[in-house]
Amino acid sequence: MIVHESPIDRTYQYLLIAAFFFLPITVLGNNIAIWLIVILWFFSGNYKEKFQQIKNHSLALASILFFLIHIIALIWTENLDWGFEIVRKMLPFLFVLPAFLTISRIENAKYYITAFLIAIAISEGLSYLIWLGIIEPFGYAFGVENPTPLMSHSSYNPFLAFAFYLVVNKLLFGGKMSQLERVVYTFFAITMTFNMFITAGRAGQVMFFAAIIVTAIQYFKNSQVKAFFYSLILISSIAFTAYFTSPLFHERVTLVADEIVNYNEFQHSTLLNLSSMGLRYTFFKNTSELIKKSPILGVGTGDFPAEYKKINDIRSRLVRTTVQPHNMYLLVLAQLGILGLASLAWIFYLQFRIALSSSNQFVHHVGVAMPIFFLIIMWSDSYLLGHYTGNLFILFSSFIYSNR
After folding, report:
1. Which member of 15, 88, 171, 223 has the greatest number of CB atoms within 10 A?
2. What is the residue range of 236's domain?
3. Per-residue pLDDT tens listing for the chain (404 residues)
4. What is the reported pTM?
5. What does 153-214 look like in DSSP terms, one character per residue?
């Protein structure tokens, strides 16, 4: 039964469940649920109590600080239009996470997670239907070689990896389960593993392997040698099988290896010769040069596209320019400088501190795993900037680290 204190709290809980369900399925539905909660929160009174709750929650304060630094960096921004667009994308750190930390309940975690996993199962089912040729590709799916219709593969695979971790965590640490539940969860874990390698999201695949390592460390907490040994065997087996059975995975691994070896040659030929990995490496090099121009304050919240283009035109004019370097750390450092990067790091530090000090096993496990996963995948894209993965981070943080 859903835990709540009052009629308004019950409304919050049902809307939260809806937000978790809609997150992997529809941007519109997810946004409606989230912002209805925010509006209700703002107009439901008890402002002194709410202010005290936020004031007493270090993660809520860190989230607000991260947002406010984006506002401050507008002062030295020339391109205010793009600056306001970035600020708009960062609004959940000002309104959603602080508010949700005051209303979400760890007691209702099973409802939030069940809603999320049902939505992942729907997404996965559609992915398989496209891959098997039963239905025509639609949405973000551009063919059977990349069947991710409800979101791009760069977002879908991290979702899949995180869902895989939640399912395996439930199997290993979820306590007493019926035989049917255990069969369903095991089947779900297997189908997600296979689905991971018929889609093209490499960051999600890396996150998937990280999930195996983290799970092994948590399961063999008294023997890290066993954790390393078993995770190495399992990862090697899955990677080897995927390499020789999934043409897409084989092709992308080969392409990455080839581009690493021949990057300099590719860079000076044509744009079409660079894969996403090659582009990211170019973005990394050019953004590093950009950061050297203003390492303390950054170039401002809205000036990355224009400043990056200047460097790109000089250093790699055959490679397309970009509005973000596909690396969250570089983006924050380029826009906001060292202070901005420190504010981002503070959010993750607090997540680890809350999780490691918690006596709740779920919070202790998932609260450590989630920031690890994001710290890894943010090397390959600005995942807190996108709707899907940004809201994944916000929604799960809201109840994992809640004071309630």
Report:
1. 15
2. 152-245
3. 787 778 899 999 999 999 999 999 999 999 999 999 999 999 988 889 999 999 999 999 999 999 999 999 999 999 999 999 999 999 999 999 999 999 999 999 999 999 999 999 999 999 999 999 999 999 998 877 789 999 998 999 999 999 999 999 999 998 888 999 999 999 999 999 999 999 878 899 999 999 999 999 999 988 889 999 999 999 999 988 888 887 777 777 776 666 666 665 555 555 545 667 778 888 999 999 999 989 999 999 999 999 999 999 998 888 889 999 999 999 999 999 999 999 999 999 999 999 999 999 999 999 999 999 999 999 999 999 999 999 999 999 999 999 76
4. 0.94
5. HHHHHHHHHHHHHHHHHHHHHS----HHHHHHHHHHHHHHHHHHTSS--HHHHHHHHHHHHH
Cα distance between residue 322 and residue 300, in whole Å: 16
Is residue 393 situated within a structural domain? yes
9 and 146 part of one domain: yes
Q: Are 209 and 235 in contact (CB under 8 A)?
A: yes
Domain count, the chain: 3
Residue written as token pair 């895989």: 164
Q: Is residue 269 part of a domain?
A: no
146 CB contacts (<8 Å, ≥6 apart)?
153, 199, 200, 248
- Both 222 and 288 in one domain: the answer is no
317 with 191, same domain?
no
- Asked if residue 144 and residue 11 are part of one domain, the reply reads yes
Please answer whether residues 148 and 205 qualify as being in contact, where contact means their C-beta atoms are separated by less than 8 angstroms: no
